[in-house]
Design goal:
Distance between the termini of chain B: 29 Å
Number of strands of chain B: 7
Order of helices and strands of chain A: HHHEHEHEHEEEHHEEEEEEHHHE
Radius of gyration of chain B: 12 Å
Strand order of the largest sheet of chain B: 1-2-4-6-7
Number of helices of chain B: 3
Order of helices and strands of chain B: EEEHEEHEHE
Oligomer: heterodimer
Strand content of chain A: 15-25%
CATH class of the largest domain in chain A: Alpha Beta
Helix content of chain B: 25-40%
Shape of chain B: globular
Number of domains of chain A: 2
Number of helices of chain A: 11
Structural class of chain B: alpha/beta
Mean pLDDT of chain B: 92
Mean pLDDT of chain A: 91
Structural class of chain A: alpha+beta
Largest sheet of chain B: 5 strands, mixed
CATH class of chain B: Alpha Beta
Radius of gyration of chain A: 33 Å
CATH superfamily of the largest domain in chain A: PPM-type phosphatase domain
Low-confidence stretches of chain A: none
CATH topology of the largest domain in chain A: Phosphatase 2c, domain 1
Chain lengths: 374, 103
C-alpha cells in the first residue's frame, strides 16, 4: 500500500502538496499523530495489529482537531465496522482492494472540507478579536466617565449630584461629565454621539475630552460649545455628530447657564412636584458645521429643585410591542419624586424603564445625570 | 432586516423613499447605498417621509451626509413629514436646512 500510494501521488509529493506518513499499526500511528499535529487526513485500516482502527479512531476524536478527516479502509463485506466508524465520526470509507482514483477523489473532497473548516476558524477568531476590541472600547468608555460619587463633597451642603449610564449590548456613544471651573462654578455635561460601534466610541472619547478641556479654559457655556464644536467638526468623519447639553451651575446662587446643542431637553423637577421641559433652543448639534455661535439659556434653581438630564435611550426605550417609554411617562415618573435625592430619582426612572421594556433587548445606552439644589 | 427604503435618481435629483423608521438598524445600509451618488452632481435630495414615524440620531446623520457629501450642498426636501419627525429635526437644530412639502 505504501509503494502504491507513493507511486500514485508522486506528483503531489514532489510538488509538496501532500506529505505521507506510514504506520504499521495503531500504536505507531498514534505516536506519529501526536508528534505531527498538522496531519489532517488519516487513511485508517480497521484491521490492524496492536490497536485496531476503531480504537484509534476513538483516540483521534479525543484530540479535538475539528479539521481532521479520517477515511476508513476495510475489507469488502465489513459493513458493521464501517457503519460503526462512520457513526463515530469517520469522514468516508474505501473498500479493499483500494481503487486509487476513487481514493484520490475522496482525499480531494476531504481537503475541500478541511479548507472550509480553516476558513471558518479564521473568521471565528477575527470575530472574537473584534468582540475583544469592542469590550476594550466599552471599558475605556466607562473609565472616561467620572468615577467618584459624590463628586464634590466640599459642596455637599449646597447640592446633590448623581449620574448613571447603562451601556447597550452594541457599544454606543453616550457620555456624561462634571468638573469644577472655579470655586463657585461647576460644569455638567451630557452627550450622545450618533451611531454605534468603535467609531461612535472614539468620537465620544474625543467629544468628552474636548468639552472638558474647553470648559475649563473658556468659562462660559456658549464659548465652550462654540470652540468645542469648531474642533469636533475638524475630527468628524462622514458627518459624525454629537448632541450635547452643557450647563454651568453656580453653587452659591443656584443659577444654571446652559447651552443645548441638539440634545433632548432636560426636565426640571420643581420642589412642589411640577415637572417642566426646558425650552428647545435654536442651537444645532455639534461636529457638522464649524462656524456656529452657540446661544445660552438661563435657569434659576430654587432650593429643592432638581435638573434631570438624559439621553434619548431613556425616552426611546422600547417594549416588546415596539412602543417607546416616551417623554410623558418620564415626566409622570419624575412627578412623584419630589423630596428625593438625585440617586433615588435616577434609580426610580431606571426601574420604571426596566418594568416598561420587560424582556425587550436594550438597543441604546441609557444615561442620566441629575443635580439638585439643597 | 429587510430593506425598507428605496433610492432613485432622476437627473440631478435623488429621491429617497423611507419606510416606517430611520434609525440605527437601517441607517448604515441607507448611507452605504448613498455613497455611489457622491460624485454624481446631485442638486436635490427628496426624502419621501410619508410613512416615517421614527427618526433617530443615526437617521439625522443620513440627512447630514446628503447635505454635506452629495454634490455641492444639495437642497434637502422632506415630503409629507409627520409632526413627530418635525420635532426631532427641530430638536437637533437642522430644520432650517430642509424644505418641507406636502403632496
Amino acid at each position: 500500500m505504501e509503494l502504491l500510494m507513493k507511486q500514485y501521488f508522486r506528483h503531489q509529493i514532489r510538488n509538496g502538496e501532500y506529505e505521507f506518513f506510514f504506520a504499521r499499526n495503531g500504536v505507531e500511528a498514534l505516536e506519529i499523530m501526536e508528534a505531527t499535529p498538522d496531519i489532517e487526513i488519516v487513511l485508517l485500516d480497521i484491521n490492524m495489529p496492536e490497536m485496531d482502527g476503531l480504537t484509534l479512531l476513538a483516540l483521534l476524536n479525543e484530540m479535538h482537531n475539528s479539521a481532521l478527516r479520517v477515511i476508513m479502509v476495510s475489507a469488502y463485506g465489513d459493513m458493521p465496522n464501517i457503519r460503526q466508524a462512520m457513526n463515530n465520526g469517520a469522514f468516508d470509507f474505501a473498500i479493499k482492494p483500494v481503487d486509487m482514483d476513487d481514493l484520490n477523489m475522496t482525499i480531494k473532497k476531504a481537503i475541500k472540507q478541511i479548507n472550509y473548516v480553516h476558513e471558518s476558524q479564521k473568521e471565528h477568531s477575527q470575530l472574537e478579536s473584534l468582540k475583544q476590541d469592542l469590550m476594550t472600547a466599552r471599558n475605556i468608555q466607562q473609565y472616561i466617565l467620572p468615577q467618584v460619587i459624590p463628586p464634590f463633597p466640599e459642596d455637599s451642603d449646597k447640592m446633590d449630584v448623581y449620574a448613571s449610564m447603562e451601556a447597550a449590548k452594541d457599544i454606543g456613544g453616550d457620555f456624561y461629565d462634571y468638573f469644577r471651573i472655579d470655586d463657585d462654578h461647576i460644569a455638567f455635561v451630557i452627550g450622545d454621539v450618533c451611531g454605534k460601534g468603535i467609531t461612535a466610541a472614539l468620537f465620544m472619547a474625543v467629544s468628552c475630552t474636548i468639552i472638558r478641556s474647553k470648559g475649563i479654559q473658556c468659562g462660559t457655556a456658549g464659548a465652550c460649545m462654540t470652540e468645542s464644536n469648531c474642533l469636533l467638526a475638524a475630527y468628524s468623519v462622514d458627518c459624525m455628530f454629537v448632541t450635547v447639553f452643557y450647563a454651568i451651575y453656580n453653587t452659591k446662587t443656584g443659577l444654571v447657564t446652559y447651552c443645548n446643542a441638539g440634545h433632548n431637553p432636560p426636565h426640571l423637577l420643581r420642589k412642589d412636584g411640577t415637572v417642566e421641559e426646558l425650552p428647545i433652543t435654536k442651537n444645532v448639534l455639534m461636529g457638522i458645521y464649524d462656524q456656529i455661535e452657540y446661544e445660552e439659556g438661563n435657569l434659576q434653581l430654587a432650593s429643592g429643585d432638581m435638573l434631570v438630564m438624559f439621553t434619548d435611550g431613556v425616552t426611546e426605550a422600547m417594549n416588546p410591542e415596539q412602543k417607546e417609554f416616551g417623554t410623558r411617562q418620564l415626566m409622570t415618573t419624575l412627578g412623584g419624586q419630589t423630596g428625593k435625592s438625585c440617586r433615588q430619582v435616577i434609580e426610580t426612572v431606571r426601574r420604571a424603564i426596566k418594568d416598561f421594556v420587560g424582556d425587550a433587548e436594550q438597543s441604546d445606552d441609557i444615561t442620566m445625570l441629575a443635580i439638585k439644589r439643597k | 432586516m429587510e430593506k425598507d427604503f428605496e433610492v432613485k435618481q432622476e437627473g440631478s435629483a435623488l429621491t429617497v423613499t423611507l419606510g416606517n423608521k430611520l434609525y440605527a438598524v437601517n441607517s448604515p445600509a441607507l448611507m452605504e447605498e448613498l455613497v455611489p451618488y457622491t460624485d454624481q452632481g446631485i442638486e436635490k435630495v427628496v426624502f419621501d417621509a410619508t410613512n416615517l414615524t421614527l427618526l433617530s440620531s443615526s437617521g439625522v446623520r443620513v440627512i447630514m451626509y446628503c447635505k454635506q457629501k452629495l454634490g455641492a450642498s444639495p437642497e434637502i426636501v422632506f415630503v409629507n413629514c409627520k409632526e413627530e419627525v418635525l420635532e426631532v429635526l427641530g430638536l437637533v437644530g437642522i430644520r432650517s436646512i430642509i424644505t418641507f412639502e406636502k403632496r
